[in-house]
Protein: Carbon monoxide dehydrogenase
Organism: Candidatus Entotheonella gemina
Amino acid sequence: MAPYDVLFALSSQGICFKSFWQVLITGGRRMKITTVVNGQTHESDVEPRLLLVQYLREDLRLTGTHIGCETSLCGACTELVNGKSVKSCTMLAVQADGAEITTIEGLAKDGELDPTQEGFWEEHGLQCGFCTPGMIISSYQLLQRNSSPSEAEIRHALEGNLCRCTGYQHIVNAVQYAAQKMQ
């Protein structure tokens, strides 16, 4: 990918250019980053070109995040970065320097599933499970903003997440279950 293609991809995501220019300036040398992932602080030396999804899966061994299309179309790699839903296959790890990141592993507390996770289990909102982590993270973010979403609002919030196995109705039911449980 040419630098201008990367610049365009980053700008279309609304991502800060500071890290992009750091990549160009460092000439590919490793960079120190500090992240807070699921409440734990991590200091790492990473390649400037390392994607956030690779950092989470390979460096931190948080394999609940899935790599699907690597083009931001499927949403399987969706994470929360500073509370905002981000497709981690289109964000560089260096751009997450100083960020607070929540992955699918970070939702369960003290061995108890988050209501969003429980909803997917109880309402059969998964089949093969590949899209499930991204679906749950997107659903979780929706419920943080809107504790009682309509079916249309749920479907809209999940537009960036693709499931090739279900007809989405069980996923919508799962989010509605979670919303009721959180009330």
In short: Residues 31-106 form a domain with the Ubiquitin-like (UB roll) fold (CATH 3.10.20.30). Strands lie at 31-37, 40-46, 78-81, 84-87, 100-102.
